[in-house]
Amino acid sequence: MNQIVEVWCEDNYDFMKGESYPCKVAEFSTTEEAVVYMCDKLDEQLCRLAKIVASAEELLRGYKYGGTDYYIKGSLLFSSWKYAEQAAQKIFDECREK
After folding, report:
1. How are beta strands 5-11 and 68-72 bridged, if at all?
2. What is the tens place of the pLDDT at every residue in 3-58?
3. To pair with 31 at 20 to 30 A between CA atoms, which of 2, 42, 59, 74?
4. pTM of the model
């Protein structure tokens, strides 16, 4: 029996959680595929934000205030916030060079 790994997301800003969140955004056959997907989505999001902020610290604050928080339903194996904290400086430096 194959288990489906569901990726869900919530808006970091939407404190009142309307009808649109949380929502399922993708399904995968392995946790590894799901983590790659979430990291790619977060990299894209952080890179867009990096182009309009002045520092990696500001990038991280902006993400935590209004970014998308991805997670695997029923699992604590991945944290979007921890990933963003670890990747913020690298992504800021790389995306500012472009």
Report:
1. antiparallel
2. 899 999 988 775 555 566 688 999 999 999 999 999 999 999 999 999 999 999 99
3. 59
4. 0.89
Structure tokens at 25: 């955004």
Residues in the chain, how many?
A: 98
Query: Which residues does 33 contact at the CB level (< 8 Å), separation at least 6?
Result: 5
Task: Name the one residue in this structure whose structure tokens are 């029923």.
Answer: 74
- Give the C-alpha separation, 86 to 68, whole Å: 16
What residues contact residue 28 under an 8 Å CB cut-off, 6+ apart? 4, 5, 7, 34, 37
CA 52 to chain centre: 18
Return the pLDDT at 21.
Answer: 67
Nearest to 57 by CA among 13, 89, 91, 82: 89
